[in-house]
Amino acid sequence: MKIGLRVEVATLQGALEGVPRLLKLFDEYQLRASFFFSLGADRASVGGGRWFNPQQWGYRRRTAPLDLPKVGLARLFTSPPVIANRAADLIRSVSAAGHEVGIACDDRLAWLADAADADAGWTRQQMDRAAKVLRDITGEAAQISAAPGWQLNPHLLAWQAGQGLRFASDTRGRSAFLPVLQGVESGVVQLPTTLPTADELIGQPGISLDNLHEFIFSESRHLLPNGHIYSLRAECEGLSQLSLMEKLLVMWKGSSDEPLTLGELYDALDREKLPRHQVGWGEVTGRPGYLAMQSLPLE
After folding, report:
1. pLDDT of 158 over the 70 cut
2. Which of 81, 234, 271, 277 could form a disulfide with 18 if both were Cys (CB 3.0 to 4.6 A apart)?
Protein backbone atom coordinates (compact mmCIF):
# COMPACT_ATOMS: atom_id res chain seq x y z
CA MET A 1 0.00 0.00 0.00
CA LYS A 2 1.24 3.47 -0.84
CA ILE A 3 1.06 5.98 2.04
CA GLY A 4 1.41 9.62 1.03
CA LEU A 5 2.83 11.86 3.77
CA ARG A 6 1.22 15.33 3.91
CA VAL A 7 3.13 17.47 6.40
CA GLU A 8 1.48 20.72 7.49
CA VAL A 9 3.80 23.33 9.00
CA ALA A 10 1.58 25.84 10.78
CA THR A 11 3.83 27.77 13.15
CA LEU A 12 7.35 29.11 13.49
CA GLN A 13 8.07 26.57 16.21
CA GLY A 14 6.92 23.79 13.93
CA ALA A 15 9.18 25.08 11.17
CA LEU A 16 12.32 25.67 13.21
CA GLU A 17 12.06 22.75 15.63
CA GLY A 18 9.65 20.17 14.23
CA VAL A 19 10.70 20.15 10.58
CA PRO A 20 14.42 19.43 11.23
CA ARG A 21 13.48 16.46 13.39
CA LEU A 22 11.17 15.13 10.70
CA LEU A 23 13.85 15.61 8.06
CA LYS A 24 16.29 13.58 10.14
CA LEU A 25 13.72 10.84 10.75
CA PHE A 26 12.71 10.64 7.10
CA ASP A 27 16.36 10.51 6.07
CA GLU A 28 16.98 7.62 8.45
CA TYR A 29 14.15 5.69 6.81
CA GLN A 30 15.15 6.82 3.31
CA LEU A 31 11.83 8.34 2.34
CA ARG A 32 10.48 11.66 1.14
CA ALA A 33 7.36 13.62 2.08
CA SER A 34 5.34 16.66 0.99
CA PHE A 35 5.65 19.75 3.21
CA PHE A 36 3.07 22.56 3.11
CA PHE A 37 4.01 25.81 4.84
CA SER A 38 1.95 28.65 6.23
CA LEU A 39 4.29 31.53 5.44
CA GLY A 40 2.86 34.71 6.95
CA ALA A 41 2.43 36.01 10.47
CA ASP A 42 2.39 33.26 13.10
CA ARG A 43 -0.56 34.66 15.03
CA ALA A 44 -1.47 31.20 16.29
CA SER A 45 1.61 31.29 18.52
CA VAL A 46 0.91 34.66 20.13
CA GLY A 47 -2.72 34.13 21.03
CA GLY A 48 -5.97 35.73 20.07
CA GLY A 49 -8.30 34.63 17.30
CA ARG A 50 -9.53 31.09 17.47
CA TRP A 51 -7.53 30.29 20.58
CA PHE A 52 -10.34 31.82 22.61
CA ASN A 53 -13.21 30.27 20.63
CA PRO A 54 -15.31 28.44 23.26
CA GLN A 55 -16.06 25.66 20.75
CA GLN A 56 -12.37 24.74 20.78
CA TRP A 57 -12.01 24.15 24.51
CA GLY A 58 -13.26 20.56 24.47
CA TYR A 59 -10.95 19.76 21.58
CA ARG A 60 -7.96 21.32 23.33
CA ARG A 61 -8.63 19.46 26.57
CA ARG A 62 -8.88 16.16 24.71
CA THR A 63 -5.69 16.72 22.69
CA ALA A 64 -3.67 17.90 25.70
CA PRO A 65 -1.67 14.62 25.83
CA LEU A 66 -0.19 15.48 22.43
CA ASP A 67 1.46 18.51 24.02
CA LEU A 68 0.70 20.81 21.09
CA PRO A 69 2.31 24.27 21.26
CA LYS A 70 0.71 26.39 23.94
CA VAL A 71 0.12 30.13 24.04
CA GLY A 72 2.02 31.88 26.81
CA LEU A 73 0.30 34.83 28.47
CA ALA A 74 3.39 36.98 28.02
CA ARG A 75 3.17 36.48 24.26
CA LEU A 76 -0.38 37.75 23.93
CA PHE A 77 0.86 41.31 23.54
CA THR A 78 3.83 40.74 21.24
CA SER A 79 3.94 41.17 17.48
CA PRO A 80 3.65 37.84 15.68
CA PRO A 81 6.78 36.63 13.89
CA VAL A 82 6.58 36.11 10.13
CA ILE A 83 7.33 32.47 9.46
CA ALA A 84 8.97 32.97 6.07
CA ASN A 85 11.34 35.62 7.41
CA ARG A 86 12.70 33.30 10.08
CA ALA A 87 12.47 29.97 8.28
CA ALA A 88 13.61 30.72 4.72
CA ASP A 89 16.84 28.74 5.04
CA LEU A 90 14.96 25.86 6.60
CA ILE A 91 12.44 25.80 3.73
CA ARG A 92 15.27 25.72 1.22
CA SER A 93 16.84 22.82 3.12
CA VAL A 94 13.60 20.83 2.86
CA SER A 95 13.64 21.20 -0.91
CA ALA A 96 17.37 20.48 -1.11
CA ALA A 97 16.81 17.20 0.76
CA GLY A 98 14.50 16.03 -2.01
CA HIS A 99 11.16 16.63 -0.34
CA GLU A 100 8.25 18.43 -1.98
CA VAL A 101 7.55 21.96 -0.78
CA GLY A 102 4.18 23.63 -1.26
CA ILE A 103 2.04 26.36 0.21
CA ALA A 104 -0.72 26.18 2.77
CA CYS A 105 -1.61 29.87 2.96
CA ASP A 106 -0.33 33.23 4.17
CA ASP A 107 -2.08 33.77 7.53
CA ARG A 108 -3.21 30.40 8.88
CA LEU A 109 -5.36 31.78 11.69
CA ALA A 110 -7.23 34.01 9.24
CA TRP A 111 -7.63 31.11 6.85
CA LEU A 112 -9.16 28.83 9.46
CA ALA A 113 -11.56 31.54 10.57
CA ASP A 114 -12.62 33.03 7.24
CA ALA A 115 -11.71 30.92 4.21
CA ALA A 116 -14.90 28.90 3.89
CA ASP A 117 -17.01 32.02 3.32
CA ALA A 118 -14.36 34.31 1.82
CA ASP A 119 -14.73 36.12 -1.49
CA ALA A 120 -12.46 35.91 -4.51
CA GLY A 121 -10.40 38.97 -3.62
CA TRP A 122 -9.58 37.79 -0.11
CA THR A 123 -8.69 34.31 -1.34
CA ARG A 124 -6.44 35.58 -4.13
CA GLN A 125 -4.66 37.92 -1.73
CA GLN A 126 -3.93 35.11 0.72
CA MET A 127 -2.67 32.73 -1.92
CA ASP A 128 -0.80 35.29 -4.04
CA ARG A 129 1.14 36.42 -0.97
CA ALA A 130 2.09 32.88 -0.07
CA ALA A 131 3.00 31.98 -3.65
CA LYS A 132 5.22 35.05 -4.02
CA VAL A 133 7.00 34.37 -0.75
CA LEU A 134 7.68 30.74 -1.65
CA ARG A 135 8.99 31.76 -5.05
CA ASP A 136 11.28 34.34 -3.45
CA ILE A 137 12.63 31.65 -1.11
CA THR A 138 13.04 28.74 -3.52
CA GLY A 139 13.36 30.52 -6.85
CA GLU A 140 10.56 28.38 -8.26
CA ALA A 141 6.81 28.82 -8.63
CA ALA A 142 4.59 26.85 -6.27
CA GLN A 143 3.34 23.65 -7.85
CA ILE A 144 1.29 22.18 -5.00
CA SER A 145 -0.90 23.44 -2.17
CA ALA A 146 -2.88 22.15 0.81
CA ALA A 147 -5.54 24.19 2.59
CA PRO A 148 -5.11 24.43 6.38
CA GLY A 149 -7.75 22.59 8.33
CA TRP A 150 -9.35 21.33 5.10
CA GLN A 151 -11.07 24.68 4.68
CA LEU A 152 -11.62 25.81 1.10
CA ASN A 153 -13.94 27.77 -1.16
CA PRO A 154 -14.63 27.83 -4.92
CA HIS A 155 -12.27 30.77 -5.39
CA LEU A 156 -9.38 28.64 -4.15
CA LEU A 157 -10.17 26.06 -6.82
CA ALA A 158 -10.20 28.82 -9.43
CA TRP A 159 -6.89 30.20 -8.16
CA GLN A 160 -5.25 26.78 -8.28
CA ALA A 161 -6.43 26.25 -11.84
CA GLY A 162 -5.19 29.69 -12.87
CA GLN A 163 -1.77 28.94 -11.41
CA GLY A 164 -1.58 25.60 -13.18
CA LEU A 165 -0.80 23.65 -10.02
CA ARG A 166 0.04 19.96 -10.37
CA PHE A 167 -2.28 18.92 -7.56
CA ALA A 168 -3.81 20.09 -4.29
CA SER A 169 -4.70 18.38 -1.02
CA ASP A 170 -7.55 20.40 0.49
CA THR A 171 -10.17 17.77 1.26
CA ARG A 172 -10.95 14.59 3.15
CA GLY A 173 -11.96 11.60 1.08
CA ARG A 174 -11.09 8.19 -0.31
CA SER A 175 -9.56 8.65 -3.77
CA ALA A 176 -8.09 11.17 -6.19
CA PHE A 177 -10.66 13.27 -8.05
CA LEU A 178 -11.36 16.46 -9.98
CA PRO A 179 -13.28 18.87 -7.71
CA VAL A 180 -16.47 20.79 -8.36
CA LEU A 181 -17.65 23.32 -5.78
CA GLN A 182 -20.55 25.75 -6.19
CA GLY A 183 -20.38 25.52 -9.95
CA VAL A 184 -16.60 25.97 -10.16
CA GLU A 185 -14.83 23.05 -11.83
CA SER A 186 -11.10 22.58 -11.57
CA GLY A 187 -8.71 20.43 -13.53
CA VAL A 188 -6.26 20.47 -10.62
CA VAL A 189 -6.37 17.01 -9.08
CA GLN A 190 -7.43 16.72 -5.46
CA LEU A 191 -5.49 14.22 -3.36
CA PRO A 192 -7.62 13.96 -0.21
CA THR A 193 -6.48 12.99 3.25
CA THR A 194 -7.82 9.48 3.83
CA LEU A 195 -6.58 8.60 7.32
CA PRO A 196 -7.61 10.06 10.69
CA THR A 197 -5.07 12.37 12.28
CA ALA A 198 -3.41 11.98 15.66
CA ASP A 199 -5.35 14.86 17.22
CA GLU A 200 -8.65 13.40 16.00
CA LEU A 201 -8.00 10.00 17.55
CA ILE A 202 -6.34 10.87 20.86
CA GLY A 203 -8.74 10.73 23.76
CA GLN A 204 -11.30 8.65 21.89
CA PRO A 205 -12.49 5.55 23.78
CA GLY A 206 -9.70 3.02 24.08
CA ILE A 207 -7.06 5.22 22.43
CA SER A 208 -4.04 6.58 24.28
CA LEU A 209 -0.54 7.72 23.40
CA ASP A 210 0.61 4.14 23.95
CA ASN A 211 -1.57 2.63 21.22
CA LEU A 212 -2.34 5.60 18.97
CA HIS A 213 0.00 4.33 16.25
CA GLU A 214 -1.81 0.99 16.18
CA PHE A 215 -5.15 2.64 15.43
CA ILE A 216 -3.70 4.76 12.62
CA PHE A 217 -1.95 1.72 11.18
CA SER A 218 -5.16 -0.31 11.38
CA GLU A 219 -7.02 2.35 9.40
CA SER A 220 -4.31 2.23 6.75
CA ARG A 221 -5.08 -1.47 6.14
CA HIS A 222 -8.29 -0.57 4.28
CA LEU A 223 -7.65 -0.88 0.56
CA LEU A 224 -8.25 2.29 -1.44
CA PRO A 225 -7.85 2.88 -5.19
CA ASN A 226 -4.87 5.25 -4.95
CA GLY A 227 -3.42 4.34 -1.57
CA HIS A 228 -3.71 6.44 1.59
CA ILE A 229 -2.69 9.93 2.64
CA TYR A 230 -1.69 10.63 6.23
CA SER A 231 -1.68 14.25 7.37
CA LEU A 232 0.77 15.05 10.11
CA ARG A 233 1.78 18.27 11.81
CA ALA A 234 5.29 19.53 12.37
CA GLU A 235 3.95 20.83 15.70
CA CYS A 236 2.87 17.33 16.79
CA GLU A 237 4.66 14.46 15.03
CA GLY A 238 7.72 16.67 14.64
CA LEU A 239 7.90 17.61 18.32
CA SER A 240 6.46 15.71 21.28
CA GLN A 241 5.11 12.87 19.12
CA LEU A 242 8.12 12.16 16.95
CA SER A 243 8.10 8.63 18.38
CA LEU A 244 4.55 8.18 17.07
CA MET A 245 5.78 8.97 13.57
CA GLU A 246 8.68 6.57 13.89
CA LYS A 247 6.41 3.77 15.13
CA LEU A 248 4.15 4.30 12.12
CA LEU A 249 7.10 4.22 9.73
CA VAL A 250 8.36 1.00 11.31
CA MET A 251 4.93 -0.63 10.98
CA TRP A 252 4.41 0.58 7.41
CA LYS A 253 7.88 -0.46 6.30
CA GLY A 254 7.48 -3.80 8.06
CA SER A 255 4.29 -4.43 6.10
CA SER A 256 5.97 -3.58 2.79
CA ASP A 257 4.00 -0.35 2.57
CA GLU A 258 5.60 2.56 0.77
CA PRO A 259 5.58 5.96 2.52
CA LEU A 260 6.16 8.59 -0.16
CA THR A 261 5.39 12.08 -1.41
CA LEU A 262 2.00 13.12 -2.67
CA GLY A 263 3.68 13.83 -5.98
CA GLU A 264 4.60 10.17 -6.30
CA LEU A 265 0.96 9.24 -5.71
CA TYR A 266 -0.03 11.80 -8.33
CA ASP A 267 2.44 10.43 -10.88
CA ALA A 268 0.93 6.95 -10.51
CA LEU A 269 -2.58 8.14 -11.42
CA ASP A 270 -4.30 7.58 -14.75
CA ARG A 271 -5.32 11.22 -14.91
CA GLU A 272 -7.40 10.77 -18.06
CA LYS A 273 -9.81 8.57 -16.13
CA LEU A 274 -10.18 10.55 -12.90
CA PRO A 275 -13.80 11.09 -11.83
CA ARG A 276 -15.33 14.44 -11.01
CA HIS A 277 -16.79 14.80 -7.53
CA GLN A 278 -18.72 17.47 -5.75
CA VAL A 279 -16.98 18.96 -2.75
CA GLY A 280 -19.29 19.06 0.26
CA TRP A 281 -19.00 19.78 3.96
CA GLY A 282 -18.98 17.16 6.66
CA GLU A 283 -17.88 16.38 10.19
CA VAL A 284 -15.03 14.12 11.24
CA THR A 285 -15.10 12.44 14.63
CA GLY A 286 -12.66 14.13 16.97
CA ARG A 287 -12.38 17.42 15.10
CA PRO A 288 -14.60 20.47 15.72
CA GLY A 289 -16.39 22.17 12.86
CA TYR A 290 -17.03 21.23 9.25
CA LEU A 291 -14.39 20.12 6.76
CA ALA A 292 -14.30 20.03 2.97
CA MET A 293 -15.15 16.48 1.90
CA GLN A 294 -15.10 14.48 -1.29
CA SER A 295 -18.80 14.06 -2.01
CA LEU A 296 -21.06 12.77 -4.78
CA PRO A 297 -19.57 11.69 -8.11
CA LEU A 298 -20.72 13.57 -11.20
CA GLU A 299 -21.43 12.13 -14.63
Report:
1. yes
2. 234
